[in-house]
Amino acid sequence: MRAGLTILVMKGASVVESLLVKYLGVTKSNEQYRHLSLVLISILTCTGIAAFFAFYNLAIDYYPPLFYVDAAGMVMGLLSLSTLLLFRRVLLASFILLVMVSGVCLMVIMDRNNLDYSLAWALVTPVVSVFLLGFLYGALYSGLYLAFVAWFAGRNLGVWQPAPWDIDSFSNLWVIYVLLFILSCYYEFSRRSAHKLLQESNEKLRIQAVTDALTGLYNRRYMEDLLLNSDQDLFIAMADVDDFKKVNDELGHVVGDDVLVGISNVMRSTLGSNGAIGRWGGEEFIIVSYGESEENFTDQLSRMLDNISSHSFGVNRPITISLGAVRHSAKEHRAALRSVDEALYSAKTSGKNCYKLVTSLSD
Fold this sequence. Notes:
GO terms for molecular function: diguanylate cyclase activity. α1 (about 1-25) packs across α2 (about 35-60), α2 packs antiparallel against α6 (about 165-210) and α9 (about 255-270) packs antiparallel against α10. The chain has helices spanning about 1-25, 35-60, 65-85, 90-110, 125-155, 165-210, 220-230, 245-250, 255-270, 295-310, 335-350, and strands at about 235-240, 275-280, 285-290, 320-330, 355-360. The longest helix has about 45 residues, at about 165-210. By secondary structure, it is of the alpha+beta class. It is about 65% helix and about 10% strand. The protein starts with a helix and ends in a 5-residue tail after the last strand.
């Protein structure tokens, strides 16, 4: 049964979503989606209930006064629906719906007094008013409504006689319970959906904050934080694409960007899970290796040079990189960066497509 209710709620949410997209152009990513979906589901639910009771009081338990009340409520519900979807007047549609709901409930109470447990319809207005108007205005409207119902019921103290428990009483309580249950389920479903969407948005922002947009590697900020907050000695290498300016000048920046992306992929696959790679800026990359010996680290650098020089980047010129490497300690971060720059410069002046490892840090 629980699974069936979940499927029913999800299908209802899907219908609401399609209506909002079609008529209002509002998707789940819009900040107004949750409120608008709540308004729409309330309109559809309340209009459907008014239509059901209009039919009930006409065809099943013929009672013209309540038929006219429910029929008027159904018309107001349709008016509220058209105001929302066709004219896009959200506040007006919400107000029309609230007047419809509270008005129908009040007319039922005034007509039936305490018969058929009709006073229970007063419980609907507070929930709907807060849903539609928010806490402040919903509480104010609900308070005024409660005051009137209390006055009406209070003036009949000692007048109303005990009411029988019959099918009409049962129907009223059952419908009110189901209505409040549906609204509560939808509220919880929308709350969870909003929370999930917020988590996904936060995760997306977190990834964007640490990722280079072009290559998908970590950005410079993330790599700097990684180095500064590391509690272990690491090996780092600075990579620079050889003659990259010629690639841009001869082949264009679009091709140059493709080359950078291709180099990033080769470097990432070569390093594997034993480190991190980030784009330092332009055609420069920084490589961090965890827990490797100097010999293993230099082997990685050699494989990286070979893999890039032998890789086909779809251009009619060789693509290579030069690497400067050094052992890094968070306590000597700046000195390590100066040393790795010097090592990179040494690799460049030594014919390129090679690496240079510095064993002592610059002062």
